[in-house]
Design a protein that fits this description.
Helix content is 21%, strand content 25%. The chain has helices spanning 4-7, 88-92, 104-109, 143-146, 164-178, 211-223, 245-256, and strands at residues 8-15, 28-30, 63-73, 112-117, 120-121, 136-137, 152-154, 181-183, 188-192, 198-205, 228-234, 261-265, 273-276, 279-282. Helix 6 (211-223) links the parallel strand 10 (198-205) and strand 11 (228-234).
């Protein structure tokens, strides 16, 4: 099994997706050097003559992988705005390329695109009560992901149950039928890229932090062969450009527990990027 911290250089393309905005350049890159080879011990006796080797000497080859992480992706809208002239459904129509058109070239060139899917995909039902905003799109909107090279999504956020458990079940079925991988709240996902990197993902939101479960899940992902572990966490204060103290403490604790990348969403704005220990922390994309 590869040890990515020693042998793999990984570039991270962090994107903040807002509607159909301008193209986004890579915002962070983490590269680790190959380990140096210790000097060999000198011979103390004359070497015996042997036939020269016909096999060429080979140097360890660097492996490089590109993983794309995005901010919150809401493919749908509140029922009260669904059919408004400026509502999502009327803006999109049947142009399912629209949401990711300006970043799809990045998605297509990477090894894994992981998004935070914030909302529900179902064709009927009623939103749950006592929520100011609820977000729904028809199941056909899954083509926005499959047509834009989105391979996986985290569903650990505060809008996956906007249409109750029936809406959530319809969302899971839609993802499964389309072949898009997903990770649920307090759940894990093991994903192997076509290029051979095994990525483990554990997901939480601010309603269900469980450090003991996280540590156990990270250990399980490692045992299952994960070479890179991502902690997808939905947290923080909306509109704030700075993480809270408890987030900083928690992020560092999960890196100490074996997480390689902390992938934060929910504030809807960019926050700090921190290199800590052997990991990197994106507090909010």
């Amino acid at each position: 099994m590869r040890n990515w911290k020693s042998y793999i250089s990984i570039a991270l393309l962090a994107l903040l997706l807002v509607g159909c905005g301008p193209k986004v350049d890579p915002s962070a890159q983490m590269t680790v050097e190959e380990p140096s080879v210790p000097p060999t011990t000198q011979e103390t006796t004359p070497p015996t003559e042997t036939e020269p080797s016909t096999e060429p000497e080979t140097e360890p080859q660097e492996e490089r992988f590109l993983i794309t992480l995005t901010g919150d992706c809401t493919l749908g809208c509140d029922p009260g705005m669904y059919y408004a002239g400026w509502g999502f459904a009327n803006v999109i129509g049947e142009d399912y390329d629209h949401p990711f058109r300006n970043v799809r070239e990045y998605f297509e060139k990477d090894d894994l695109t992981l998004i935070n899917f914030e909302g529900v995909l179902c064709d009927s039902g009623r939103p749950v009560a006592n929520k100011y905003f609820t977000f729904r799109g028809p199941t056909a909107y899954i083509e926005m992901l499959t047509g834009s090279s989105v391979e996986a999504a985290t569903l650990a956020n505060n809008h996956t149950l906007d249409y109750g458990w029936d809406g959530y079940a319809a969302t899971l079925e839609t993802f499964e039928n389309a072949g898009v991988s997903y990770v649920e709240k307090n759940g894990t996902l093991l994903y192997t890229t076509p290029t051979g990197l095994t990525v483990g993902i554990y997901a939480e939101d601010y309603s269900c932090f469980d450090m003991d479960l996280l540590k156990a899940s990270v250990a399980e992902l490692r045992e299952q062969g994960a070479e890179l572990v991502i902690y997808a966490v939905h947290w923080g204060k909306e509109g704030s450009y700075y993480p809270q103290i408890h987030q900083i403490e928690q992020a560092r604790e999960v890196v100490d527990a074996g997480v390689d990348i902390v992938y934060g969403t929910h504030p809807h704005v960019l926050q700090n990027i921190e290199h800590y220990g052997d990991g990197v922390i994106f507090y909010s994309l």
